[in-house]
Amino acid sequence: MSHHPTPPGDSPFRSEPGRRDEAPQFVLPLVVRIERAAPPARTDALETAARAVLVLLGDDRALGDGEWAQAVRDWQDARIRKVVRRARGAEWRRAEALPGITVSGASAEVRVFPPVPLDGWPKELAKLQVSGTDLDDPEPPAPAGPDTPVLWMSPGLDMSAGKAMAQAGHAAQLAWWELSDEERADWRDAGFPLAVRTAGRDLWGRLRDSGLPLVRDAGFTEIAPGSCTVVADHPALRHRSGFASR
Questions:
Q1: How far apart are CA 139 and CA 43, in angstroms?
Q2: Distance between CA atoms of residues 41 and 184, nearest Å
Q3: What tens digit of pLDDT does each residue of 59-108 get?
Q4: Among candidates 225, 228, 227, which has minimal Cα distance to 209?
């Protein structure tokens, strides 16, 4: 029988900040490959990062007694931090040698690693730069299909690609928590299809009040604490909320 799971540990957007802050802090490292000659498109990088988070959450190593499961539980018991760093050439090859999962999009490659203590990054990742992830879309992304989960970005915030990748990952994670076991399995078996798009201002206003999963940023970098950054519009959640976004 399927059921609607309670988020494992504390969601960064639902529980009391003091309790989350008292727990040991962990971070989910994501590394995006940005070669000088062929940087990925921005939207593809955001979508690939979101899928990478989902791939890790659905991996057997992150579940039950898997080798990454305790690290994932520890991470989800505190603030759900994600940090995106960039790599190219030998840096990327060293990152690929560490335990993790590489997820590829149309032009983007993102490697996600099991959570690590906030001050305990592997040296191969600690030396990578966070800045420099300002990516562009060569063409405007096409409209998403009606049955495609969409992570709607706020139209009123200016974020670097790295920051936006982390926010898209948060939204994907919130959607994952809200789905039943059967819905999660269906999404995973389909390869986690999703789109990242920026909402128009009218749509964004309706999305924020829709009851769909909403990311409120903790404000560690770039934007003010409490900023609403992304809404996760998954068809299964949309049908339950009665929201019609398109």
A1: 10
A2: 28
A3: 999 999 999 999 999 999 878 899 999 999 999 999 999 999 999 999 99
A4: 228
Task: Give the domain extent around 46.
Answer: 24-241
- Distance CA(229)–CA(14), nearest Å, equals 15
Which alpha helices (H) appear in 103-224, and where do they start and end? 123-126, 161-178, 181-189, 201-208
Answer yes or no: is 56 within a domain: yes
CA distances from 218 to 95, 140, 223 (A): 27, 29, 9
Q: At a CB cut-off of 8 Å and minimum separation 6, what does 156 contact?
A: 201, 204
Bridge partners of residue 87, in order along the sequence: 33
Instruction: Look at residue 11 and tell me if it is in a domain.
Output: no
In the chain, alpha helices (H): 17-22, 42-57, 69-76, 89-96, 123-126, 161-178, 181-189, 201-208, 235-241
Q: Reduced to 3 states, what is the DSSP secondary structure of residue 116?
A: strand
Average the pLDDT over 118-124 and give the result: 92
* Residue 48 φ/ψ, nearest 5 degrees: -70, -40
Any domain includes 14: no
The answer to whether residue 216 sits within a structural domain is yes
Residue 235 sits in a domain whose CATH number is 3.40.1490.10
The pLDDT tens digits for 184-238 are 999 999 999 999 999 999 999 999 999 999 999 876 777 777 889 999 999 999 8
Kindly give the interhelix angle for 161-178 and 42-57, rounded to the nearest 10 degrees: 40
* Nearby residues of 132 by Cβ (< 8 Å), 6 or more positions away: 34, 86
Answer yes or no: are the C-beta atoms of 201 and 218 closer than 8 Å. no
